[in-house]
Amino acid sequence: MRTESRIYLGVGSFFLLILIVYFLWSKESTGSVLLLASAGLGILPGLYMGWWSRRMRPRLEDVEVVEPLDISGVVGTFPENTIFPFTLGIGAWLTGLAFVFGVWFAVIGMGFVLGAAVAATVESKRASLAEPANRPAPGGDGRLRDR
Amino acid sequence: MTRMARAARAASVVAAGLVLASCKIPSFGAYHGNTVQGNSTYHLWQGFFIASVFVGGITFLLLGFALVRFRRRGDAIPKQVHGNTKLEVFYTVVPVLIVAVLFVFTVRVENKVDAVSNHPNLRVDVTAFQWGWKFYYPDYKVTTITQGVGAYPTLELPVGETATFRLVSNDVVHGFYLPQFDFSRYALPGVTNYFDFTPQRTASFTGRCSQLCGLYHAEMLFSVHVVTPAQFARWISNHQESQVTK
Amino acid sequence: MTSLLSTEKTGSQVEESHPPGGFYRWITSVDHKVIGKNYMYTALTFMFIAGAMALLIRTQLFNPNGHVVGQQTYNELFTIHGSMMLYLFAGPFAFGGFANYIVPLQIGAPDMAFPRLNNLSYWLFLTGGSTMLLGFFTASGAAAFGWVAYAPLSSNPYSPGPGPDLWIVSIALVGFSGIFTGVNLVTTIFYLRAPGLTMFRMPLFTWSMLVTGILILVAFPVLTAALVMLYADRHFGAHFFSVQGGGVPVMWQNLFWFFGHPEVYILALPFFGIISEVVPVFARKPIFGYRGMVFATLAIAGLSTGVWAHHMFTTGTVLLPFFSALSLLIAVPTGIKVFTWIATIWGGQIRFGVPMLFAMGFIPAFVMGGITGVMLASPPIDFYTHDTYFVVAHFHQVLIATTIFAGFAGIYYWYPKITGRMLSERIGRWNFWITYLGFWVTFMPQYLLGLRGMPRRIAVYSATDGFTFLNRVSTVGAYVMAIGMALFLVNVVRSWRRPVAAEDNPWDGATLEWATSSPPPTHNFHSLPPIRSARPVWDANHPEHSDAAPVIAGGDESAH
Predict the structure, then answer these.
(1) Which domain holds residue B148?
(2) Which residues of C touch A99 (CB under 8 A)?
(3) Which of A66, B39, B210, C434 is the most exposed place for a label (fewest CB within 10 A)?
(4) Rounded distance, CA C216 to CA C179, Å?
(5) CA-to-CA distance for C362 and B81, rounded, in angstroms?
(6) CB contact set of C310 (below 8 Å; sequence gap of 6+)
(7) B103 plus B53 within the same structural domain
(8) C342 CA: distance to closest CA in chain B (Å)
(9) Count of pairs with CB atoms under 8 A, one residue in B, one in C
(10) Do residue B140 and residue B216 come from a single domain?
(11) A133 to chain C: which residues are within 8 Å by CB?
(12) Where are the alpha helices (DSSP H) in A2-103?
């Protein structure tokens, strides 16, 4: 986690640096706002990850030498087939076309989008609860990987 | 401090030498830049081209040598080299130095090209529109303008005199592009751009719109004539008369 | 309907379900390999369509005052050619196709972190991409304002009709698809690496894709915001970009290029990553200076957001020295990469398989485009060559070097892994050499055309301009290139009709994707080799030349 945090912080700080130089030199607003947003985009997750990396055991993927004992068990739960991303995509597309061909497209499109969103949530919830490895452990941090 | 000053002096001597020598250096396909401003762009181009040939040449030679020398000669596994910090620092620092030098020359030429005279000999107001140009000489109240596709306007300039241009656009973004002056500048709606030309030799060529501006972008041309001051005076008076009689 | 499947770290899958077959399986699968393949097919299809448009454009320019197409159609053609190549081919091919397929394999993960989101990205990409082509079937034609859509030309009084709106919707959908894929990539790389695969043991392709993912997250939202503003200008009279309403036209250029320049590196970095995979494997050496490469990649990411206005030098509204300095500086990390590749083959045993041929062809082509890029970073030279064929030649050399030469290096390299079949080496060589010849013949004359004053995006030129000969050479080159590209299709069809089975690791690859079968099983790995260095498969296959430090039994205390 520490490296990940440093990548974000490094990129974000660099944006902050060029933001300061750029703003003081040019006083141009569009680019300065965009650079500020980008700097935040780097620094915020960087700080979050850095905060966590100090409060948790190193994850196995951050450990240099891993024992065979550590690497057995369930990696996670991954779905194989579901129709709802397709439905959602078609809905989003029809809604997009509404911006060109008129609002009636959005009526159909939003129907698809809402239906798919609800159905996908239900499906995902039901399926993941059916998976013994994926039941939330008492006091667990909710992470997928079971250790 | 003195060391830096000495280095700066040495650099400027080298630069001056390069500029003098560059008259004999080939043009590498570019126009010579028929203005004082454009000519310094042209010399900068020559400098960049030579630096490029140098850097590119070394890269291609190294690559070519490696490809021939280290092609497969058997099934032995070569020495597994993971890096060499000194070499890596070397090929980081050298490019930094090269671009630093290029940057110094760039800024000097850029300041020259962008300088606007306080006391120009001539003023020209250029207005771009879909799909044509209007050239207005405020000192003489003379206008030339595109009359339709194929009826291109003329930009007449006296040789050796500094003209300040004022460039605006009436509608969309256009590009005021004079290839033989080694220069172009956007004509932006809502923005007024100023720049100077000091033409060096008499010439005639075609100016163009460089930025896509709609259907007839390709035909948004104008003629540029760099003439002697006497010819320019005659041209002005001819136009003043014809515009008065209208 | 849905089946969820657990994967054991050590391998054997707990419950192998029976997925539905045929068409239904194709649209419902959330396997990253299926989605990755879909992305590749779709992006390559868009590439061939846009390539056909390029041939039409070149044909129009073969003669002065060409009459192959009208001026309006010509403007539509180069707009859609550019938009398709950049938004629908180069980017999605890399981060939707290659990254989707290869990254989970390289980090030993069973799938992407958000498989359903991944599937949604693909459908947004397919529908959005097709929407762009719909413009040609409307009465007033497709968008005709160039792929950069400079306002106010792209705004309502100058570009009315549904074509431009379709373009906006299309780019917005594809943009969302890109953002989702970016999120997915970064999360996958941060959270789903195999045990022992620390950040500094990741393959360089995965590193490139991580940085690409971060850049996507920086750049694409800006584009989406700009598109919303443009749409509001067109239909709701918002006047963001119109002077009459108090707007600022240059703001479009600022917003667009704040997206557009990182976008250039979003297109280039994945392909640099491919080269960094192919070169060491075919030279049978590790990459020279792994950490240097990682930091160069990060430096490119940082600098790329500080150089957007080098596309706007001639507007007279930007801070020239600032953007010029940063643009020149970005040549340094790029140069480091080139020198690293050369240092990697130095002292190696180079095997010239087709992937290596493309990779080695990539380097000179890219260096040529890079050098002219340094020239363009100098504002005075840019004043001279801006919006001329010099720029056209420059970015075509950079983009074709990366997306075509490095991209085909990747296709030939991973095709055995993806399909379980080998492509013909013989046809592959012809594919490379003919395309490569055509490439140089097409674009070198364009530099000269630019210096002689030919602006880009012009449908006609006059016989007295002196552009005719060079344009003809360039057009002939374009057709040669097209023949070379067609040979790729021949090669693919051949591998499909007369398959030659591929081994699991035909090139003696070093990274984890070569540790599984070709093609990989549903959740990628039945077992993973121990990961003790950046080249776990190499370590397993060549223990006497292993990168890994010997392990003392009991191991590192930090592991517990």
Answers:
(1) 122-245
(2) 165, 168-169, 231
(3) C434
(4) 6
(5) 23
(6) C261, C323, C324, C327, C376, C377, C382
(7) yes
(8) 6
(9) 253
(10) yes
(11) 6
(12) 2-26, 29-53, 84-101
